[in-house]
Write a structure and sequence with these properties.
single chain, alpha+beta, Cytochrome p450, 3-stranded antiparallel sheet, 16 helices, 47% helix, binds protoporphyrin IX containing FE
């Protein structure tokens, strides 16, 4: 589908980004929500899109069947002559209709609340082992490299059957794929290589099945319930969506808690607040910032704006989560916020299939850190932290801490 340039593009705003070296969300969101809730923005990759920042609109759009999610290779339309015409690079997010429903049905039991509860002891053990190593390596230690990254990655590798020891190959590719909103061609090339890697991994699972989700899906493929493309699609979803958000969340949560001593002390004093803290951090941290891209399949009118078929719409979850009409005092991190109807796991048929697992990872990670390090603190000044500035979702690339 082509991106359509409209008269509005000439007055399109620059893509809002948090200042380098900060977490965000971008300050423009307050103004956009108030004055221009459906704004035309120019993306760094050249295309334009409608940027949607109010809670009600974002909530509605995430589940609106009149919009679809484009694959990384289909939007923005490749410049003529440069289209590699390779295999379709589709993840679960972009699958539609019966194919999406079948794949979702096949993997849903592995991600259900009940299955995830059964994994609590294993996931706690994993967190403890990683923190044993982290502590033994001495201080200051890098909480990203030592814990926030390996922990969710190990969880998803064990569950899905992705070899953890091959991470030096696929991690940089998955990061490039995730950063595609800012660096498109790099992201596309990386996704092609990830797809090839998965096709080969699936062959290995066929030869040597194991007790993991990919092997199970290969069995279902052999039974005619799924196609090999479905299995690749699922694997790709796990590589690009199955751990990085949790890594960013754990790292950002650590920064925010270590720079909000009052909140941290309250949490240490009353662990009953932990489930509220996890929900509030999910709302407060701008991890889901510009990560969902939709294309209108028909002409829509939204708050008086005319959105034509083929135009891109970005419902910005991180902006919706700070909408004062739903969250009083939205820029305050509060441990008693209830209800807390944040949109961080999306909505509708594409909502996050891994949300129970993600909540468990976040809860286990924070609990383990609080228990292990009663005096955890940043080892450098906050402004000295190095941030991932090449992505709309920001997290520190390393997080030096002492204890
Ligand atoms: C803090 C952590 C996480 C956050 C904030 C998050 C957020 C989201 C959001 C907002 C969506 C919907 C995207 C859309 O509407 O297009 C989504 C979809 C998805 N997430 Fe997550 N996620 C997290 C962790 C995980 C984990 C741990 C897994 C699995 C191991 C996972 C797997 C998926 C998959 C497969 C989809 C696509 C579902 C579908 O299209 O049917 N996510 N996630």
């Amino acid at each position: 589908m082509n991106d359509v340039t409209t008269a509005a593009d000439h007055s399109a705003r620059a893509f809002p980004l948090a200042p380098p070296g900060t977490m965000g969300p971008p300050r423009e969101y307050d103004v956009l929500r108030r004055e221009c809730p459906i704004a035309r923005v120019r993306l760094p990759i050249g295309a334009s899109a409608w940027y949607v920042t109010r809670y009600d609109d974002v909530r509605m759009l995430l589940a609106d069947p009149r919009l679809v999610r484009p694959t990384i290779d289909s939007w923005p339309a490749p410049v003529e002559g440069t289209d590699p015409a390779g295999p379709e690079l589709v993840t679960m997010m972009e699958l539609e209709g019966p194919r999406h429903a079948a794949l979702r049905r096949a993997v849903a039991p592995a991600f259900s609340a009940r299955t995830v509860r059964r994994q609590v002891p294993r996931i706690r053990r994993l967190a403890e082992q990683l923190l044993d190593h982290f502590e033994a390596a001495g201080q200051p230690g890098d909480l990203v490299g030592g814990f926030a990254e390996p922990f969710p990655l190990r969880v998803v590798c064990d569950l899905v059957g992705i070899p953890y020891e091959e991470r030096d190959f696929y991690l940089p590719l998955a990061d490039a794929a995730l950063g595609a909103l800012l660096t498109l061609e790099h992201g596309r090339a990386a996704t092609v290589r990830l797809r090839d890697y998965l096709a080969e991994l699936i062959q290995r699972k066929r030869r040597e099945p194991a007790a993991d989700l990919l092997s199970d899906l290969v069995r279902r493929q052999d039974a005619g319930e799924l196609t090999v493309e479905d299995v690749i699609t699922f694997g790709l979803s796990m590589l690009v969506g199955g751990y990085r958000t949790s890594t960013m969340f754990i790292a950002d949560a650590a920064v925010v808690l270590l720079t909000h001593p009052g909140v941290l002390a309250a949490l240490r004093a009353d662990r009953e607040l932990l489930p509220y803290a996890v929900e509030e951090l999910l709302r407060y941290l701008p991890v889901m910032n510009g990560s969902v891209v939709l294309l209108a399949t028909e002409h829509l009118i939204l708050r008086g704006r005319s959105i034509r078929a083929g135009e891109a719409v970005l419902p910005v979850i991180a902006a919706a989560n700070r909408d004062a009409s739903v969250f009083p005092d939205p820029d305050r991190l509060g441990l008693h916020r209830a209800p807390n109807p944040h949109l961080s796991f999306g909505r509708g048929v594409h909502n996050c299939v891994g949300m129970h697992l993600a909540r468990l990872e976040l809860t286990v990670a924070l609990t383990a850190l609080l228990n292990r390090f009663p005096r955890l603190r940043l080892a450098v000044a906050e402004h000295e932290l190095p941030w991932e500035d090449d992505s709309p979702s920001k997290s520190p690339t390393s997080l030096p801490v002492c204890w």
